[in-house]
Structure formats: C-alpha cells, structure tokens
Amino acid sequence: MEHLTMESFKEKICDCGLDGSGRAEWKYKGSVPAVIDFYADWCGPCRMVSPVLEQLSEEYGGRVNIYKVNTESEPELAGAFGITSIPSILFIPIDGQPQMSAGALPKGEFKRLFRDVLGAEESVN
User: Fold this and answer.
1) From 49, 62, 70, 123, which residue has the greatest number of CB atoms within 10 Å?
2) Identified catalytic residue from 34, 36, 43, 89
3) Sequence-separated (6 or more) residues with CB below 8 Å from residue 76
C-alpha cells in the first residue's frame, strides 16, 4: 500500500480542483479501481482497518490499488475531501464518481464494496 501526498494524489488519482482553481471536476487517472484510507496514527479504529486493507491489497493485487493518506501530515488533502472523522475510506471506480464510507469496516463489507462499487470480484484461486 502506498502513502499519498498531495503531489502523488494529483499525479496518480485526480487533479480535481486541488490546484486552488475551484474546479472540482472528477477525472480519475488510474487504470484500475482504487481505495484511499484517510487515517491517523493515533486512531484506534484506523489501526484495526490497516491490517484488513493490507490483506485486501494482496488478495486484489493488480485489480484494485489501495492507498493511504495520513490526515495529520496531509491536512490540505483531507480537507479537500471534507474528512471530519477517521477512518474514512474513499472508493474510486474506473468510471463514475467516488464514494466515501466513514468508520472501520469489517473485511466482508470491504469485499462487498469492492464488488458493488468498484466492480472487483474476488479471485477464485
């Protein structure tokens, strides 16, 4: 899982008005769906979600990119998405608008959202 800064977010995810121009048109730059975990090191529920996302990163490798944004070190990026509680998880499909989910989710719920929102099915190994 990669940690995003404002610069790497603009490069890999979306410029979407983060340049101060006020334009907020969403145009995802990735080639596979993505998930962004907005977290802080001191957050207990965030620490519970992190190993789940690590597992999912391996299980969905190459089919879903999972990123993390530390809200303490990237307050401008967190503010751009109106993050007021953590963990907040942003689900980004290839086409369409991203969807935000707040709070710690169990692994089964992540898998359901991966399928329903991102169109990413589980591997049948």
Assistant:
1) 49
2) 43
3) 6
Instruction: Say whether 43 is catalytic.
Output: yes
Question: Structure pTM?
Answer: 0.91
Q: How many residues does the chain have?
A: 125
Choice among 14, 34, 46, 78 that is catalytic = 46
Tokens of 3: 């940690």
Q: Is 14 a catalytic residue?
A: no
- Could you please state the CATH topology (level 3) that the domain comprising 2-15+30-116 is classified under: Glutaredoxin (3.40.30)
The DSSP 8-state label assigned to residue 122 in this structure reads P
Distance CA(31)–CA(27), nearest Å, equals: 12
Cα–Cα distances in angstroms (integers) from residue 61 to residues 20, 26, 55, 64, in the given order: 33, 24, 10, 6
The domain spans of the chain are 2-15+30-116
